[in-house]
Design brief:
The protein has 149 residues and is of the alpha/beta class. It contains 5 helices and 5 strands. It starts with a helix and ends in a 5-residue tail after the last strand. The relative contact order is 0.26.
Length: 149
């Protein structure tokens, strides 16, 4: 597929994902267990955690990054915001990592599953729509979606 076509397809996916979420004023909340001693994360640290290049937090506890399915609109938006790539475009990276013994983040089926898993799992980090956050989890970072244009 020509490079221009790939760029056009990526832009279309980005517009669809961001439009459907931002139409409701949503943002992405990056969450951890309520009792976590980590209260915030930089974008760079978040990238390293999700690329499995940073395995331990500042207290020496193992990070357990959680993703939604690659077809989920929130995962699409999260990947575009963090890596400027769709999840499908990261397959080559994960294939290379797998042969080095590094597995990609665990994938859960729904935002509620992410909330439940993160709430009971020390070191887990995930993301959900900000409107779904409740007192089970701690918000580490809010990633605003682009305005609907």
């Amino acid at each position: 597929m020509p490079a221009f076509s790939k760029i056009l397809i990526r832009l279309c996916f980005a517009c669809l994902a961001c439009t459907s979420l931002s139409a409701f004023g949503e943002s992405i909340a990056v969450i951890s267990q309520r009792t976590s001693s980590i209260n915030s994360l930089s974008i760079e640290t978040l990238k390293l955690v999700y690329l499995r290049k940073l395995l331990l937090d500042s207290n020496g506890h193992r990070w357990i990054p959680i993703n939604l399915a690659s077809s989920h609109e929130l995962r699409q938006s999260f990947s575009l915001l963090l890596f400027q790539k769709l999840p499908e475009e990261q397959e080559e990276y994960w294939n290379e990592q797998y042969f080095q013994g590094i597995s990609p983040p665990t994938v859960l089926a729904s935002e509620e599953a992410v909330l439940r898993f993160v709430a009971i799992t020390p070191g887990a980090i995930g993301y959900v729509r900000l409107g779904l956050v409740d007192d089970r989890v701690n918000v580490l970072k809010v990633l605003p979606l682009p305005e609907n244009r």
